[in-house]
Automatic annotation (TrEMBL), chain A:
CDD domains: ABC_Pro_Gly_Betaine (cd03294). The keyword Transport applies. This is Glycine betaine/proline transport system ATP-binding protein. The keyword Coiled coil does not apply. One of its GO terms (cellular component) is membrane. InterPro entries: AAA+_ATPase (IPR003593), ABC_osmolyte_uptake_ATP-bind (IPR051921), ABC_transporter-like_ATP-bd (IPR003439), ABC_transporter-like_CS (IPR017871), Gly-betaine_transp_ATP-bd (IPR005892), P-loop_NTPase (IPR027417). PANTHER family: GLYCINE BETAINE/PROLINE BETAINE TRANSPORT SYSTEM ATP-BINDING PROTEIN PROV, GLYCINE BETAINE_PROLINE BETAINE TRANSPORT SYSTEM ATP-BINDING PROTEIN PROV. Belongs to the ABC transporter superfamily.
Automatic annotation (TrEMBL), chain B:
Belongs to the binding-protein-dependent transport system permease family. It is a multi-pass membrane protein. Residues 104-283 form the ABC transmembrane type-1 domain. PANTHER family: GLYCINE BETAINE/PROLINE BETAINE TRANSPORT SYSTEM PERMEASE PROTEIN PROW, GLYCINE BETAINE_PROLINE BETAINE TRANSPORT SYSTEM PERMEASE PROTEIN PROW. The keyword Transmembrane helix applies. This is Glycine betaine/proline transport system permease protein. GO terms for biological process: choline transport; glycine betaine transport.
Length: 370, 323
């Protein structure tokens, strides 16, 4: 039996977050090797698969037709296992890697069309980056590391040290400015990395698995610290991770990447409740829904409820809003002992969460299955 | 018939005997042509080396012994450990006591001059070659040839082009001592972790900034090893170069052997060994980062540290006077 070759022209485009995206990737492709352009041509004309590209053109396919956009202040997570191309993808955003095809817009400017000087200015002023292995400069002190992007721009020493001190205060490392990176623990080093990315006050943060190399406790602390900061600073963030829990904790939206393809893009709730394919479904199978699924997903419409329980009296039942998560709905139900919760929206009852629907929601099954 | 056959077979089996490539004649003619037409060019090269050497030697020969001793003490205290400092002082005194001081200063001037020129040529060359693996591949055999060709082979051509004396001696020395510096500069730059380089680019560094602010500082230790190697090779070449009338300790050894004056030769030899060890230890110390030597910055140690403390004290005293 002949196996059907896997085709590559499957990339999806996603709805943009809002009308003015800060980062926008359009149909981005990366094929490695000298013959990338030829391979690109062949993929478009003949619709050949990954293996065939490698066989005929000697280059691996890193990113397949990736399109997404990140809105102002949004945290956009790209989640994938190692080798899925997520680190390659993020390096296209500041053009550390040149795409084979496609474009990347940074605040409306096409970064793939920039000359060297413009590219350097964009990198220095608009984009801060944090790396998995910290990549601090070992020959420079913590303060000099944080001030590095300013040094590159020719900001004078006094001014850049002042700014670096402020950035170190943000990550609570103000006492360590004179130390050298190898004198700090891993978690502290990554906070220096974050301070370095924040020092130039860029609009965009690229975080390439920033917390992956840290042990779980420190990782959790840094995630919390980062969330706290991002609420305050509202940086548009592209966050790469291989950990779905982390993506769900941190991301406003998540893109799941597999073998260079963005398989699904959506809110954590979308990903968990409506996985696009089996791959994503397997991924989210073990994820707790308590903080991900909201009342509007599990509630019954008021009409359906009245049909099912015509004699039920809703007066006196506790009220809640559509954007409460399952966890708080459980709290409400247990503390009041009620069987139904009324979901209110601007004073009107728009739906009802029953005990059964709530339990089904936790299970991850459709609310109307009873 | 049989004999003819044997001769044919011999020729078939040993074809290289049939043709003679007159390389020796070509080289001879090339050299004569160069000497005939371009001697002025080689004389021009002499000028900067001559100037540097004469200046350095003049300085070393005319500075009183005591001042040089103090200088040697300070330099080794600044860059090396206490053991090295003691060794440097003892060596200097020994060289003076056995009557080789002046020759040692000549040799030191020769070594310093050739190392300076090696750095001037080798460092930019290494940096340039590190950026292109094709160029590096093209230059590598030249570097190999420079290091392995016996010095005697090019001693005579150098004399024909540059004449005799200290300057051609330095040119011969540069040819021999340059390759390790170039090689180790390339190696050092290639060893800089790629993630650090990537980070620099991500923050908007230009190629030049990456080279100056990241690659060279991080390659510095390896480059210092290269300079140390160059220094050692220079010192060993200075003796060979005494055959083309280069002065100093090498000349002492050569003359001593020529006259079967073993004592004289031994003094020259001792001077070279002591100088080699001392220079090696001090330059190795320079290669260590200040933090490896137990301080944060290089000026927190040695005579410079003392000077800074002294300055601060004077400052305190004057401010106290005002109050």
């Amino acid at each position: 039996m002949e196996k059907q070759p896997e085709t590559l022209l499957t990339g999806r485009s996603s709805e943009s977050a809002n009308s003015n995206p800060v980062i926008e990737c359009r149909n981005l492709w990366k094929i490695y090797g000298d013959r990338g352009a030829e391979a690109m041509e062949a993929i478009k004309k003949e619709n050949i698969g990954k293996e065939e590209v490698l066989e005929r053109f000697g280059g691996g396919v890193g990113v397949v037709d990736a399109s997404f956009s990140v809105g102002e202040g949004e945290i956009f997570c790209i989640m994938g296992l190692s080798g899925s191309g997520k680190s390659t993808l993020v390096r296209h955003v500041n053009r550390l890697i040149d795409p084979t095809a496609g474009t990347v817009f940074i605040e409306g400017n096409d970064i793939t069309a920039m000359n060297r000087a413009e590219l350097r200015r964009t990198r220095a002023e608009k984009i801060g980056m944090v790396f998995q292995n910290m990549a601090l400069l070992p020959h420079k002190s913590v303060r000099q590391n944080v001030a590095f992007s300013l040094e590159l721009r020719g900001v004078d020493r006094k001014e850049r040290n002042r700014i670096a001190e402020r950035a170190l205060e943000i990550v609570k490392l103000e006492k360590w400015g004179a130390s050298y990176p190898d004198e700090l623990s891993g978690g502290m080093q990554q906070r220096v990395g974050l301070a370095r990315a924040l020092a130039a006050d860029p609009h965009i943060l690229l975080m390439d698995e920033p917390f992956s190399a840290l042990d779980p406790l420190i990782r959790r602390q840094l995630q919390d610290q980062f969330l706290e900061l991002s609420v305050k600073m509202k940086k548009t963030t592209l966050f790469i991770t291989h950990d779905l829990d982390e993506a769900i904790r941190i991301g406003h939206r998540i893109a799941i990447m597999k073998d260079g393809v963005l398989v699904q893009i959506g809110t954590p709730e979308d990903i968990v409740t409506k996985p696009a394919d089996k791959y994503v479904a397997d991924f989210v199978a073990g994820i707790s829904r308590l903080h991900l699924v909201y009342a509007h997903t599990v509630m019954w419409s008021i009409g359906y409820f009245q049909k099912k329980y015509p004699e039920a009296d809703l007066n006196g039942c506790p009220e809640s809003s559509a954007d409460e998560d399952l966890d708080s709905l459980i709290d409400v139900m247990v503390s009041t002992g009620a069987k139904f919760i009324r979901i209110m929206e601007s004073g009107n009852c728009v739906g009802v969460v029953t005990q059964g629907a709530l339990l089904r929601g936790i299970q991850g099954k459709e609310p109307d299955e009873e | 018939m049989v004999e003819l056959n044997v001769s044919i077979w011999h020729n078939i089996l040993n074809p290289l005997e049939l043709i003679h490539l007159p390389l020796d004649i070509w080289v001879d003619e090339l050299l004569n042509w160069l000497v005939g037409n371009y001697r002025w060019f080689f004389q021009l090269i002499r000028a900067p080396i001559d100037f540097a050497l004469v200046t350095i030697e003049h300085l070393l020969q005319n500075t009183p012994e005591v001042i040089l001793l103090i200088l040697g003490w300070f330099v080794s205290w600044q860059f090396a450990d206490r053991k090295t400092t003691v060794f440097v002082l003892i060596s200097m005194v020994t060289v003076g006591l056995v009557g080789a001081w002046s020759q040692a200063m000549t040799t030191l001037a020769l070594v310093i001059t050739s190392v300076v020129f090696c750095i001037i040529i080798g460092l930019p060359m290494g940096i340039l070659l590190s950026r292109s693996s094709k160029m590096e591949a093209a230059v590598r055999p030249v570097l190999d040839a420079m290091q392995t060709t016996p010095a005697f082979v090019y001693l005579i051509p150098v004399v024909m082009l540059f004449g005799v004396g200290n300057v051609p001696g330095i040119i011969v020395t540069i040819v021999f001592a340059l390759p390790p510096l170039v090689r180790l500069t390339i190696l050092g730059i290639h060893q800089v972790p790629s993630d650090v380089i990537e980070a620099a680019y991500a923050f908007g560094a230009s190629e030049r900034q990456v080279m100056v602010k990241i690659k060279i500082p991080l390659a510095l230790r390896t480059i210092m090893t290269g300079i140390n190697q160059t220094l050692m090779l220079s010192l060993s070449m200075v003796v060979v170069a005494s055959m083309i009338a280069v002065g100093g300790l090498g000349q002492m050894v050569l003359r001593g052997i020529g006259r079967l004056d073993i004592g004289q030769a031994a003094i020259g030899g001792l001077g070279i060994v002591l100088m080699a060890i001392a220079l090696d230890r001090v330059t190795q110390g320079m290669g260590l980062s200040p933090r490896m030597r137990g301080t944060r910055f290089w000026y927190q140690k040695g005579p410079v540290h003392l000077l800074i403390k002294l300055r601060d004290k004077v400052k305190d005293a004057t401010t106290n006077d005002i109050h």
